[in-house]
Specification:
The chain contains 11 helices and 11 strands. With 344 residues, it is an alpha+beta fold. A hairpin with a 5-residue loop joins strand 3 and strand 4.
Length: 344
């Protein structure tokens, strides 16, 4: 759907769905009340925005570490003539949720998340061998300053806007979930149907009542295991045609101060501190989403001016090979964990 055809209610609805999807039996009715619109109108519009491709998914967003999983950003240097084939190999790993071609010597960038019974290092080594990468860098998050894409769909949105309350965020410590909680995670991570009572069928699949599922969801969110329940939009369909990963060379002693400033920019969806290497001195990473590459450059320049950090690079994504939500406690993961336990 052409984003220019969105009216004010469409835009308000998309903003509301991105902020928080209510964990109640009839969430669309609650959103309709917030927007002062008829529930049937909100349902119809949400359905249209989903079928047109603007809404990618509505589901739970979990903290991987809190679930006991390990995750990392990984960068490969692959010969340009083989990068598409390499990306196809990487995509076949079920733990890969995002995979992009970026304009750099390190040209293939992906995120990898593995079950606690698996070795992240072994998974990366297998991928390096499988694609014939010249070089690889494993870049786990050392500190999280901001996480959460929230594209401002307002017609008068200001991409230089600053937000309050940014700062380093710690992940919830890994918890041992009950079997019932694991079943809840398995259904809450699915794409939510746009119907009047979307949680009823999920609850039945998990072998519990709707009230029980929503209670567990609220508890997981309160404990920090679930970061939030919300919609994710397709950036280009929403009018955000450019995204750049800005990497910044920041002295360790300034990481906290600079990370907080960077995270305060509304156009920045993610801000992390990651390890450095001799050939890769960049320690802070910001994902910038904008309506043009020129706007990405301008926002990065504003960040540089505000922080006094002048050494940085912008790595634009030129191809999206894969973008899905991480799937936790899949049948494959659970079977692998069972076999690992049997070997002990």
């Amino acid at each position: 759907m052409d984003p220019h055809l969105l009216d004010s209610l469409d835009r308000s609805l998309l903003n509301a769905l991105q902020r928080e999807f209510p964990l109640v039996p009839q969430p669309f009715s609650q959103i309709a009340h917030q927007l002062d619109a008829p529930p049937e109108e909100v349902l119809a519009r949400a359905s249209r925005l989903k079928s047109s491709g603007t809404i990618r998914q509505i589901s739970a967003i979990f903290d991987s570490r809190a679930l006991g999983y390990r995750s990392s950003l990984v960068a490969f240097e692959v010969p340009p003539e083989r990068v598409d084939d390499a990306a196809a190999v990487v995509n076949r790993n079920p733990g890969v949720s995002h995979n992009y071609l970026r304009q750099h010597r390190y040209n293939l960038w992906f995120t990898l998340t593995v079950h606690p019974a698996r070795s992240l290092e072994e998974e990366v080594a297998q991928l390096v061998s499988g694609v014939g990468a010249r070089r690889a860098r494993v870049l786990p998050a050392l500190r999280v300053f901001k996480i959460g894409v929230n594209l401002d769909m307002s017609a008068d949105a200001d991409d230089s806007k600053r937000e309050h309350g940014a700062g380093s965020r710690s992940s919830a410590s890994a918890e041992r979930l009950s079997e019932r909680e694991i079943e809840a995670v398995r259904v809450l991570q699915r794409d939510t149907p746009i119907i009047e009572r979307p949680f009823a069928a999920a609850a039945a699949d998990a072998g519990m009542s709707e009230e029980q599922l929503l209670g567990i969801a609220a508890d997981l969110q309160g404990r920090g295991v679930m970061r939030r329940f919300a919609a994710v939009l397709r950036h280009r369909a929403a009018g955000f045609t450019a995204n750049a990963m800005a990497v910044w060379k920041v002295p360790e002693e300034r990481s906290e101060e600079v990370g907080q400033i960077m995270a305060s920019f509304a156009a920045v969806s993610h801000c992390y501190q990651r390890p450095t290497f001799d050939d890769w001195p960049y320690s802070l990473y910001t994902m910038i989403h904008a309506r043009s590459s020129e706007a990405c450059h301008r926002i990065a320049a504003q960040i540089a001016e505000e922080t006094g950090v002048s050494e940085y690079e912008l790595l634009f994504s030129t191809k999206e090979y894969k973008k899905v939500r991480v799937q936790y406690f899949t049948d494959e993961d659970l079977e692998y964990a069972r076999r690992a336990n049997d070997r002990r």
